[in-house]
Amino acid sequence: ETSARSVLFKSMDAQIYSDGSHVEQSPGYAFNVSDDLLDARQLDRVNDKSWPKAQRVKLANIVDSYWQFLSPNGTRPAIGDTFRNDARGVFLKPNLVLGTTRWPAAKPRPRDVFVLGTAATRPYVNVAAIPATLGTRGDSYAMPQSGNYIMRSGNDAAARQLIFDAGPKGGPHGHFDLLNFELSGYGRPLISDPGAYKYDTSADRAYVISTKAHNTIIADGQNIATIEGAGNTDISVSQWKTGADFAQITAAHR
Prior knowledge:
Blueprint: H1 2-15, H2 27-46, H3 53-69, H4 92-98, H5 110-116, H6 118-121, E1 140-143, E2 148-152, E3 161-165, E4 181-185, E5 188-191, H7 203-208, E6 235-243, E7 246-253
Antiparallel strand pairs: 1-2, 2-3, 3-4, 4-5, 6-7
């Protein structure tokens, strides 16, 4: 049991940056990892097994980064190999496992009842299955390890939100999208990423991961280099400033 928990924590550290974002630069993968880790955390909780504070904090950071990535209308942004679907109904489980009300609660799903028990989930049976809002996320959010910076006009579903990528490619599930941005607003994508398309070796798949399929600089029709690793010196974020009525970022790569 001790050995298995050690492997779990090592895997957690290998996949997740300290800011909660996933090393493969795909919010959908951050969700998948957090969902599995929440199961493991709950199993240890009911068996009176404690987790070190560092792992508890990192698990909360994963959920936080995923929550921050979501478009104002509640859908996942199609960044990297992430499919654009509604994600507002997934936060009851992390709230209950981590003992918080930070994220928007939703009506329990069957698996929530199975994992968390009837006593914990019964108070939420009359809550909406899809929360009306994502709650208060602030006007800006930085994930410096993955190089993702988020700016938004407010916390309503029609808010304008920009996600700017100044981070490494992110392995097989990341795209050649350095200095890319996705803009959403008024309840829909405005300037969008293509997402995963599908996992195959087709020309269409090659296109959606390419630099030219993203909202960034392209030279001679070629992909950027496969720049990997947090803190890579080939990527420079020289400015990230926020104020009451603005957010500004300056970044470059070579």
